[in-house]
Design a protein that fits this description.
Blueprint (H helix, E strand, L loop, with lengths): L19 E4 L5 H11 L5 E4 L1 H17 L3 E8 L3 H14 L3 E5 L2 H14 L4 E5 L7 H6 L6 H15 L3 E3 L5 H8 L4 E4 L18 H6 L4 E4 L1 H4 L4 H17 L2
Parallel strand pairs: 1-2, 1-8, 2-3, 3-4, 4-5, 5-6, 6-7, 7-8
Helix pairs in contact: 3-4, 4-6, 6-7
InterPro entries: Aldolase_TIM (IPR013785), OMPdecase (IPR014732), OMPdecase_AS (IPR018089), OMPdecase_bac (IPR047596), OMPdeCOase_dom (IPR001754), RibuloseP-bd_barrel (IPR011060)
Family: Belongs to the OMP decarboxylase family. Type 1 subfamily.
Catalytic activity: orotidine 5'-phosphate + H(+) = UMP + CO2
């Protein structure tokens, strides 16, 4: 059994719960706050994405951070270099643990430079290819290659740019570890407990298999949000994470 990979970033998962990121994919802050209260202590990080960002989510992020929770701002930045850089400076001042940007080389280099300029502990995650996309979707978007090829290219570019980690499908984690080495975090959505519906995700894996395969942190939304007992659902996924760590 090999030791779990530890990324050389400001974020170090010391407990299996630290590796569970709960996606607060709900339309209102009130709903998100209820979910936080129902899962506090069973979840390591709370992710705030576009739906919630535009309905008061940044204020919620500030309150969660003040309460000692870890926050993942999933805003997937992509713009001209100057705009990305200034966005990272403002986000770093807010104080979340993670932020995402699309893994385009210029955007990543601008983000890394901005982070180095302001300092702090912000962890920059590059989104390679969205887990809702397959080869046919890439072709429709005008890409000539495959998902596998594009993910590998962007992973190598992220490492060269000095990014802290990547967001990728759990199916890709093992191959990406060979590209990026041991020091970058691999954060994987598209995780579904055994028997759960895949939804709109096309590249999925169970929590235990994802961790065993090389993922560092897992993003889970609907399997917890739709559960009758959200804390129990989160605890069950943490148990799967722990099993995956033991099997590495």
């Amino acid at each position: 059994m090999s030791a779990p990979t530890t990324a050389a970033t400001s974020f170090a998962p010391n407990d299996p719960r630290d590796r569970l990121i709960l996606a607060l994919d709900v339309p209102t802050v009130a709903e998100a706050e209820a979910i936080v209260e129902a899962t506090r202590g069973s979840v390591g990080v709370y992710k705030i994405g576009h739906q919630l960002v535009f309905s008061g989510g940044l204020g919620l992020a500030e309150r969660l951070l003040k309460a000692g929770e870890k926050v993942f701002l999933d805003v997937k930045l992509l713009d001209i270099d100057n705009t990305v850089a200034h966005g990272i400076e403002s986000i770093a001042a807010l104080g979340p643990t993670f932020v995402t940007l699309h893994a385009y080389p210029k955007a990543m280099r601008a983000a890394v430079a901005a982070k180095r300029k302001v300092g702090g502990s912000l962890t920059l995650l590059g989104v390679t290819v969205l887990t809702s996309m397959d080869d046919a979707d890439l072709a429709e978007a005008g890409y000539a290659g495959t998902v596998k090829g594009l993910v590998a290219t962007r992973a190598a570019q992220a490492r060269a740019a000095g990014m802290d980690g990547l967001v990728c499908s759990p199916e890709e984690a093992g191959a990406l570890r060979a590209i990026v080495g041991p020091d970058m975090l691999l954060v994987t959505p598209g995780v579904r407990p055994a028997g759960a519906a895949a939804g709109d995700q096309k590249r999925v894996m169970t929590p235990e298999a994802a961790i065993r395969g090389g993922s560092d942190l897992l993003v889970v939304g609907r399997p917890i949000l739709a559960a009758t007992d959200r804390r129990a659902a989160a605890d069950a996924i943490v148990a799967e994470i722990e099993a995956g760590l033991k099997a590495r």
